[in-house]
Design brief:
Elements (H helix, E strand, L loop, with lengths): L2 H23 L3 E9 L2 E9 L2 H13 L6 H9 L4 E6 L1
Antiparallel strand pairs: 1-2, 1-3
């Protein structure tokens, strides 16, 4: 391979490693939230830098499959979760 090609590949790998590191290092808390809406249950997990944001993201994700439309999504998100478990990394 030409030196220019190797340099390009190395630069791409360094950039990809930087993106992976910065994305994963910011996610310090992981929460698993279970919701019940209209008789349907679903659980989801999400990671974020603090517990409130991680729990909110997990609840939003859990509400997706059990709702239909924006009104139900908002209503599900405003309900208290059936269960919530968070852990720090």
């Amino acid at each position: 391979m030409k030196p220019k090609t190797l340099l390009t590949i190395a630069a791409i790998l360094v950039f990809a490693a930087f993106l992976a590191y910065t994305t994963l290092s910011a996610q310090k808390v992981t929460c698993t939230v279970c919701v019940e809406f209209n008789g349907r249950n679903n659980c989801a997990s999400a990671s974020h830098e603090d517990q409130n944001q991680a729990a909110r993201a997990a609840q939003t994700t859990a509400c997706g499959p059990v709702t239909s439309g924006m009104n139900e999504t908002i209503a599900c998100g405003n309900r208290a979760p059936v269960s919530q478990k968070c852990s720090t990394k």
